[in-house]
Write a structure and sequence with these properties.
The structure holds two protein chains of two kinds. Chain A is of the alpha+beta class. Chain A has two domains: 76 residues, Beta-grasp domain (Ubiquitin-like (UB roll), Roll); 75 residues, [2Fe-2S]-binding domain (DNA polymerase, domain 1, Orthogonal Bundle), CATH 1.10.150.120. In chain A, a hairpin with a 2-residue loop joins β1 and β2. Chain B is α+β, with helices and mostly antiparallel strands. Chain B has three domains: 198 residues, 2-Layer Sandwich (Aldehyde Oxidoreductase, domain 4), CATH 3.30.365; 149 residues, Aldehyde Oxidoreductase, domain 4 (2-Layer Sandwich), CATH 3.30.365; 193 residues, Aldehyde Oxidoreductase, domain 4. Helices cover 28% and strands 22% of the residues of chain B. The radius of gyration of chain B is 28 Å and the shape is globular. Chain B starts with 6 loop residues before the first helix and ends with a helix. Classes of the chains: A alpha+beta, B alpha+beta.
Chain lengths: 154, 754
């Protein structure tokens, strides 16, 4: 067990845990921040995605000890109904999610990518999001929402 | 004026609500009763209060015994209720799937959400309006026919100052009004009321697009999913499935998880699980626990490569011939030409976005289960049976889960959680690992389709036969009402109760001599099979129509006719023809003439497929590109024409269709459950790949054909069933090669084009 200090959505937190435990379990279990989902535990789907110092990472395979001293942002920290991130606003406008379980992967990955590449083409966006899963088949509206958000972010 | 009847006398006298003259009196009586009543009437379909309520603030609550899986069903129900009650849509709240608050309307099932599910809500709302207008009539001294309702306010047509709001008339109280129930539970549950629901010409909000309500909760993650439920003293669990199929427990080495603080093993016969206070400890314990398994049966599965031969050779468990007309034998005997083909479909997994999760709290005085199952009322029955309790002792609360496309692993998780809470004596949250959602969910059935047609000298189809043979789509029942159909039930010794069912193509091709039949074969393993089969989105629809709608194309080719023209020549229902024409027109379909240039590295083609599904008609044109070198198929554009009668929410319908097409494309191009002689080896997203965004269609155009005069039918599934054949037909158009086996992977494409 180790005491690991980091920040989540702007708040300083301390977790006393097995250093090898994935960050996801610290967020969901210890910190009761349940918004990143468990999808596969294998970094194959994206449902657990958070930002670590601004980079999209899969929290289901990231040891919690690796985030010591760093800043974690979850989907809830990315934006709120009052102050939505452009991608969240676009997701609502385009009525993207169906079951919605995959959402952290797409929005957090796209948010990190578009910050650096606001004018990315459709093909570049598809490349950047490759590997993320959506089982309800909302891919076409995901792309529409990203296009809409790009007009706000550019 | 009639003397007031008591409720009992009223029902005795009428047998139904047909005593118009007694109506106002009844309402008066009902209101008098509710004034002193302390509680809501029992949750029965015969009580109006079970369906609709008016709050003290005038808001309307509709109690819906189905649930929305992300396709805007709840807003559609709100629209229907709003129109019947004459209130604004945003004043209607829809409560879904809670067994303590909603009647058993069957849950999410067979695209019946609006088609069947909205019916009682519509009738109940119309009846509530009738009673409220009558109450207002009494209060205002104005005859009902001289009253109008605007956004929940009843007023005199002649004098707007004479008015009473729903809130004033009944807000916060109960109708206490009996209605006639058709005695059915599940999807066909319906009620009969005295009020006459509105005609479609009177709708104000049905037919318009309203934005879904679940979006902010999902996008900002303020909505709780079943995975997020936490109750005091809750333990975390992982169920240990056998490493191979057909195993029994020889021994469990409890010492193997000694190092995990607080972790322990619970077991009942072949059902083994680990429990821990912290979820990560449950995960670690599940990975460390040593279980020795006995092999009850060696190699229960065929070689994967021999699966379809196994199906061909297997004994027929059950055969049905739903369509049989004419004299097929003579037609084939005299045929100028016979065309034959076979099509193969693999096992497919629900592969929901996350493995299923459930939380159960089994207490002496009752049980609460939080479940993402799409059929919570059947979970209630299944848990009650599993624990030996009456249904009413079990309360199931449905919550959003990690996707649901039929009888997936959510049904097993709910019963697992109940058993574990019973064994542990504490609330238990269980969630699977990835392999539980892919290797251990009930599968969509693998099958083979044999098609044969007789053509005369002119190319006319004079005989047609399409026979599907495969694993049953209901080997595991499609709901969880009986633990015999759950992994926990079977692994604790409950004998399986297999059922046999499949299906046939749903089209209106008017071939004179025609046979559409199905045959099921026995399951590979009777109990606890990871290849047990059940409903997967549009059960056997994509499977069957991949064959039947490709075969129609093969016949068009044989007759040297255009695939669209060929279909239009044979379909006999005008709505079917209209849908096919609409898709072709929107897609800019032109009949081909002359040989195609197929010399390039990238070949393009387009294909059409059409089908019905329980009254809904859909046609899709797929436009694809095939890369010779990589074997990759790129979906350029899909054009869908869709007729489901009256459209309630066009935008919601559009998104629902898009999801269907993409899900169908994924299953066509990528999905196949891998297995060896005694295990499913598809355990994650690498071994069970689904469509990646790189492969998502560039465009999906949707033509919605609205028939306000025709009662609405389903939309949650029809458009998935035509997608595979449209893609395969486009592949043939592009390459001249038929792909008669799903999935159309790059390896298979390269092999086919080599």
């Amino acid at each position: 067990m180790a005491r690991i200090k980091f920040a989540v959505d702007g708040k300083a937190v301390t977790v006393n845990a097995d250093p090898n435990m994935p960050l996801l379990y610290a967020l969901r279990g210890d910190l009761k921040m349940t918004n990143p989902h468990f999808g596969c535990g294998l970094a194959q789907c994206g449902a657990c995605t958070v930002h670590l110092d601004g980079e999209a990472v899969r929290s289901c395979v990231m040891p919690v000890s690796a985030v010591a001293g760093k800043k974690v942002t979850t989907l809830q920290g990315l934006g709120t109904p009052e102050k939505p991130h452009p991608l969240q606003a676009a997701y609502v406008q385009e009525q993207v999610p169906q079951c919605g379980y995959c959402i952290n992967g797409w929005i957090m990955t796209a948010a990190a990518y578009l910050k650096k590449n606001p004018k990315a083409s459709d093909a570049e966006v598809r490349d950047a999001l490759a590997g993320l899963k959506c089982r309800c088949g909302t891919h076409v509206s995901i792309l529409r929402a990203i296009k809409r958000a790009q007009t706000q972010m550019a | 004026m009639n003397a007031p009847l008591s409720r009992r006398e009223f029902l005795k006298a009428s047998g139904a609500l047909i005593v118009t003259a007694a109506g106002p009196t009844l309402v008066g009586e009902a209101f008098a009763q509710t004034a002193s009543a302390t509680g809501k009437p029992a949750l029965l379909p015969t009580e109006l209060d079970s369906w609709v309520a008016i709050g003290a603030d005038g808001r309307v609550t509709a109690f819906f015994g189905k649930m929305d899986m992300g396709q805007s069903l709840d807003i559609a129900i709100a629209q229907v209720v709003a129109d019947e009650l004459d209130v604004a849509v945003d004043k209607v709240d829809v409560v879904m799937g809670d067994t303590a608050l909603t009647c058993n309307q069957g849950g999410a099932s067979g695209s019946t959400g609006i088609w069947m599910g909205a019916k009682p809500l519509r009738s109940a709302s119309a009846e509530a309006r009738r009673l409220l207008v009558q109450a207002a009539s009494q209060k205002l001294g104005v005859p009902p026919e001289q009253l109008r309702v605007d956004d929940g306010v009843v007023s005199a047509v002649a004098d707007g100052s004479k008015k009473a709001s729903y809130s004033e008339l009944i807000g916060g109280r109960y109708f206490n009004h009996k209605i006639e129930w058709n005695k059915q539970t599940g999807n066909p549950m319906d009620i009969k009321v005295e009020a006459k629901p509105k005609s479609h010409t009177e709708y104000r909000v049905v037919g318009k697009s309203f934005t879904r309500r679940d979006l902010p909760g999902k996008v900002f993650r303020t909505e709780k999913y079943v995975t997020d439920v936490s109750v005091p003293k809750m333990l975390h669990a992982r169920v240990i499935r056998p490493t191979r199929a057909a195993c029994t427990v020889a021994s469990v080495d409890e010492g193997s998880i000694k190092k995990v603080k607080g972790a322990r093993v619970v077991r009942d016969k072949e059902f083994v699980a680990v429990l821990a206070e912290h979820e990560w400890d449950a995960v670690r314990a599940s990975q460390m626990l040593k279980v020795n398994w006995n092999h009850a049966k060696e190699a229960p599965f065929p070689e994967m490569a021999a699966l379809h031969d196994h199906i061909r050779k297997a004994p027929v468990a059950k055969r049905e011939e739903p369509v049989k007309k004419g004299d097929l034998a003579s037609a084939f005997k005299t045929a100028a030409r016979v065309v034959e083909a076979e099509y193969e479909w693999p096992f497919q997994s629900h592969a929901s976005m996350g493995p299923a999760c459930a939380v159960a709290d089994v207490r002496a005085d009752g049980v609460t289960v939080w479940s993402g199952s799409q059929k919570p009322h059947y979970v209630q029955q299944g848990v009650a049976k599993l624990l030996g309790l009456p249904d009413e002792k079990v309360h199931v609360i449905w919550m959003y889960g990690p996707g649901s496309y039929g009888r997936n692993d959510a049904g097993d998780a709910a019963l697992d959680a109940a058993m574990l809470s019973k064994l542990a004596g504490r609330p238990v949250r269980v969630q699977g690992m990835r392999s539980d959602g892919i290797a251990w969910d009930p599968k969509g059935p693998a099958c083979v389709h044999r098609a044969r047609a007789a053509l005369d000298a002119s190319g006319k189809v004079v005989g047609y036969e399409f026979i599907s043979k495969g694993f049953s789509r209901i080997n595991i029942q499609t709901n969880e009402s009986d633990p015999a159909h759950s992994l926990v039930g079977m692994s604790t010794g409950i004998a399986p109760k297999p059922n046999d069912g499949f299906g046939v193509p749903t089209e209106t091709y008017g071939f004179e001599n025609k046979l559409l039949a199905w045959e099921t074969i026995p399951p590979l393993l009777a109990s606890c099979s990871p290849l047990r089969t059940s409903h997967l989105r549009d059960p056997v629809g994509p499977e069957i129509h991949f064959g039947s709608e490709q075969f129609i194309d093969e016949l068009a080719t044989a007759a040297n006719e255009d695939p669209v023209a060929f279909r239009l020549k044979y379909v006999t229902a005008p709505r079917d023809a209209a849908v096919i024409k609409a898709a072709a027109e929107k897609a800019g379909w032109q009949p081909r003439s002359g040989a195609r240039d197929r010399s390039g590295d990238v070949l393009s083609g387009r294909g059409i497929a059409y089908a019905q599904r329980n009254g809904t008609i859909v046609a899709v044109v797929a436009e694809i590109e095939v890369e010779r070198k990589t074997g990759r198929i790129r979906a350029k554009r899909f054009t869908v024409a869709h007729d489901c009668g009256l459209i309630v929410n066009p935008e919601g319908l559009r998104y629902t269709i898009e999801g269907n097409v993409v899900h169908g494309l994924s299953r066509t191009l990528f999905e196949e459950v891998q297995f060896d002689r005694d295990r499913v080896t598809s355990v994650d997203w690498m071994t069970y790949p689904i469509l990646d965004i790189k492969d998502a269609p560039e465009t999906i155009d949707v033509v919605l054909i609205n028939h306000p005069e025709i009662a609405p039918t389903g939309a949650g599934e029809p458009s998935i069933r035509v997608t595979p054949a449209a893609v395969a037909n486009a592949f043939f158009d592009a390459t001249g090669v038929r792909m008669r086996r799903v999935p159309l992977t790059p390896e298979r494409v390269k092999a086919a084009l080599a």
